[in-house]
Design brief:
The complex is a heterodimer. Chain A is mostly helical. Chain A has 16 helices and no strands. In chain A, helix 5 runs antiparallel to helix 15 and helix 15 packs antiparallel against helix 16. The longest helix of chain A has 30 residues. Chain A is globular and about 70 Å long. The two termini of chain A are about 15 Å apart. Chain B has a single domain, classed as 3-Layer(aba) Sandwich (Rossmann fold). In chain B, helix 5 packs parallel to helix 6. In chain B, the strands form 3 sheets. A 6-stranded mixed β-sheet of chain B has the order 6-9-10-3-11-12, with helices on both faces. The N and C termini of chain B lie far apart (about 55 Å). By secondary structure, chain B is an alpha/beta fold. Classes of the chains: A mainly alpha, B alpha/beta.
């Protein structure tokens, strides 16, 4: 019974009866094509490798170095990756969080206020900063699920509020990190590779959550067929609340990490850019905007592709403005590719 | 559940009925959907519920599965009068419906759909291996053949999807009373055969009683032990399948059409 799964991908490459003798190259090509069709992450993975080869060859001396690797993976990729994990979960269950980047902005300020003004110990201030993300996610969930406002609008509103709060409370001035927090901060973001290591751990955890737990199954069900999920007894409201809270938590965590990495708390950090990068990473990694499907690994590789582009152009000294053209093209190509591959997959199954 | 008369699935003896619907009525504003419904379902029996569009079949199904409360009348499940206030409550009593929209998740595999909300776990993780093999075993037992339990439900045909939905309901919720809302709608002959086969197998097992809404009299007579015809919110015919025929059912319905036509002409 189960053999057929392995065949589904190959059916596409087998027009007119099976692999005959003597077309070994064709077979290999077909099986590669099969992998592309089946594994949504494969395409973006190849793109990532190609980019690294390109920048590595064209700018060998500056691209291949410890400091540039840290820049690429920790400074550029890690924040996108971590926020993308949350956005993937939300996109799969049919929602989005535009406020993620503003939760990111506000969380380190809260940490600062707790430690400097209210005398909380460093660890508690950091915990409060991160937990704030949970609260913000809960509010996004409440307005979206309980009050019935589309999440696009909800998080547009809460995003503005958070951006304003960060500016008001900070008097639009950057704040220094509270000295007491630096010891813990070393493990969160100050040390070169720490951000990326956290990103990898978070990806590993949530990849398992999405693919191997009930939570993941119900998240897919909620976005795939909300009515059906409800008829099956799934509390889809709870799933959405939860995923908003996960996204909030991760965004707050990123904000605090970046504060430690950059050694300042900046009211202009965060904003829409990291959130849009995260959504871009999710999309080019194979997450559908319509809900029901997506992968965390894809978003992880997608974020690394974006980071390689950002960093690579940086290294080459190309104007940052033109990077956006490449990004836009990447999004469109990825989406067209996803839609077309999905069609091919469907056709492959119609047997 | 274990009553003495289980050996006679088609028994209509009052005491042996798994479900009795007595004098049930339902209005929606000015529209009377059900006037006075009296219906009974024997243990292991398959009851074919026929009727024109708008005759009240779906309303009746929704009342029996706890989705709606009737205005008057009562339901007796397994000898006990019950007031079904929710689908969950009905499910707990072993009453479950398979709707036309099926409540399947296209993106999930067959086995994940089979165990949705009743997953087998290994600590906090899904025990996919166990679910896969159990799903395979259930489907084999029920004679449902699909290419693989690993494929997403989206890739299956209408008949296969319907079969999966029925199998899920039978196995996962231990349904004693299964309500099938037009399981053969929009299905080709081959597809319909899958479902008719499945219902036949369930009938042989004898522990599930089924009410099946159908449009096609031939199919209904083929599979049901007894036929109830619902017209204008009332059961107007209650006969064993072998005592009636497609011709008789057709005559009744054609007569109704004539009457409706005459009424129109008279009022015109």
């Amino acid at each position: 019974m189960s053999e057929t799964t392995e065949h589904t991908g190959r059916l596409i490459g087998e027009p007119g009866g099976g692999p005959g003798p003597g077309n070994g190259v064709g077979d290999i090509l077909r099986s590669w094509l099969g992998i592309f069709v089946r594994q949504r992450e494969a395409t973006i993975f190849i793109v990532a490798i190609a980019l690294f080869l390109y920048f590595g060859v064209s700018n060998a001396s500056s691209f291949i170095s410890q400091s540039n690797a840290i820049n690429l993976f920790s400074s550029f990729a890690a924040p996108i990756i971590i926020i993308a994990v949350g956005e993937v979960l939300l996109l799969i269950c049919g929602e989005i969080d535009l406020s993620a980047g503003f939760i990111y902005t506000f969380a380190p300020f809260l940490m600062f206020f707790m430690n400097e003004y209210y005398g909380c110990p460093a660890w508690l201030s950091i915990v409060i900063g991160v937990v704030f993300g949970l609260v913000a996610g809960f509010i996004n969930g409440f307005i979206t699920v309980t009050l019935g406002v589309p999440s696009f609008i909800t998080t547009l509103g809460t995003g503005f509020i958070l951006a304003g709060m960060a500016l008001v409370f900070s008097h639009a001035e950057p704040h220094p990190l509270p000295p007491a927090t630096l010891t813990i901060g070393k493990y969160l973001g100050t040390d070169g590779w720490s951000q990326f290591i956290w990103a990898v751990i978070i990806v590993a955890i949530f990849h398992v959550v999405l693919t191997r737990t009930r939570w993941g199954l119900y998240t897919i069900s909620t976005g795939g067929n909300a009515l059906g999920a409800r008829e099956a007894g799934i509390n889809i409201g709870r799933i959405k609340y939860g995923n908003f809270m996960i996204t909030g938590l991760l965004s707050a965590f990123v904000g605090i990490q970046v504060a430690f990495y950059t050694n300042t708390i900046d009211p202009l950090a965060g904003g829409y850019t990291p959130m849009f990068y995260a959504v871009t990473a999710a999309v080019i990694g194979g997450t559908a905007m319509l809900g029901g499907s997506g992968t965390i690994l894809g978003a992880f590789i997608g974020a690394i592709v974006l980071a390689a582009l950002l960093d690579g152009f940086d290294v080459q000294g190309i104007n940052a403005n033109s990077v956006q053209i490449v990004f836009g093209a990447a999004i469109l190509i990825a989406m067209v590719g996803n839609v077309q591959l999905a069609r091919i997959r469907e056709r492959g199954r119609m047997v | 559940m274990t009553q003495p008369d289980q050996q006679q699935p088609a028994a209509v003896a009052a005491g042996g009925d798994i479900l009795r619907v007595e004098h049930v009525s339902k209005r929606f504003g000015p529209v009377t959907a059900l006037t006075d419904i009296n219906l009974h379902l024997g243990r292991g029996e398959v009851l074919g519920l026929l009727g024109d569009n708008g005759a009240g079949k779906s309303t009746l199904i929704k009342i029996i599965c706890g989705f709606q409360l009737p205005d008057t009348g009562r339901l007796i499940v397994d000898g006990q009068e019950v007031v079904l206030k929710s689908v969950d409550q009905a499910r707990a009593l072993g009453i479950d419906a398979v709707y036309q929209d099926l409540a399947l998740i296209n993106q999930l595999s067959v086995y994940h759909n089979m165990f949705l909300k009743r997953e087998k776990l290994n600590g906090p993780l899904l025990n996919n291996r166990a679910m896969r093999s159990t799903a395979r075993q259930y489907l084999t037992e029920m004679g449902i053949s699909i290419p693989s339990v690993d494929v997403p439900v989206a890739s299956l045909s209408g008949g296969q999807r319907q079969a999966i939905a029925i199998a899920r309901t039978v196995y996962s919720s231990n349904a004693k009373i299964l309500l099938l809302d037009e399981p053969l709608a929009a299905m080709g002959v081959k597809e319909a055969a899958i479902i008719l086969d499945l219902v036949q197998d369930l009938k042989k097992r004898g522990d599930v009683s089924i009410i099946m809404i159908a449009h096609n009299y031939g199919q209904a007579l083929e599979i049901a032990d007894r036929i109830n015809l619902l017209q204008h919110g009332e059961i107007t015919l209650d006969k064993r399948s072998k005592d009636t025929s497609v011709a008789e059912l057709n005559d009744i319905v054609v007569a109704e059409y004539r009457r409706a036509l005459e009424e129109r002409q008279r009022s015109a």
